[in-house]
Amino acid sequence: METRELRYFVAVAEELHFGRAAQRLGIAQPPLSRAISRLERRLGAVLLERTSRAVTLTEAGAVLLREGRAALYAVEAAERRTRRAATGHHGVVLATKAGASGELLAKLLDAYAAEPDAVSVDVLLCGIGEQERLLRDGRADVALLHLPFDATAGLDTEVLRTEGQVLLLPAGHPLAGRPHVRMAEVADLPGLPLPRWPGPDGTYPDGPGPQARDTAQLYQLIALGRACVIMPESGGVHLRGDLATVPVLDAPPVTTVIAWPPHSRSKAVADLVRTATNL
Predict the structure, then answer these.
(1) What is the DSSP letter of 205?
(2) Residue 201 pLDDT level (bands cut at 50, 70, 90)
(3) What region holds the HTH lysR-type domain (predicted)?
């Protein structure tokens, strides 16, 4: 398969609409439809079920969407890392979600900087779920990911820590003084819906909660009494005074891992990972 065909298919699979996919790709709809049909014939598999009202993925299509994304990320990563090598850049780019693992990240950077062979570390602070994509497409060399929220399939990882989760809500809320809450209570909170985060394609799922792009926006929404959120307990450290946290007893634990591409042969990445696991 050609990368062009994969890009065509991924666009249709994400949009589930040939017209929107064609507009996104900057091509006309008829050649896009023909390209997908040729791809299906070559693979001997139906990838998309088409009706006059909807386009849906088949089981084979879901597999190709997952594998196609990984392949396209790998192509982008090869291009970016080759260009960086050609410029003589020897530093490490680390991606992490803004507002998460702050104390751990600070300790890691300080400990690594003290190593005799340390190189510069550029930190990319990103939005929810973006650090995984930055790592896969070559914009980052290593990333701090959080299970079960981020996918680590195809990446090498080392576990750094596991922690519980807390409910973040306005400081004046009646639940703010409780010693703990349960997930069912959070789901039934009147007037404080959970936020909606964008998916990989940038669109938001349907639901009553407000749209949120980053933690700064989220904290403002919570302080205004428009939302609440369940988050790792480390994210509740050094909060502003108009926010409060309450432990959630039955929330699943969150595990922070440091992740890197399995084919990486960078000594700097290896040293950074070793420093992280030694903390």
Answers:
(1) P
(2) low
(3) 1-58
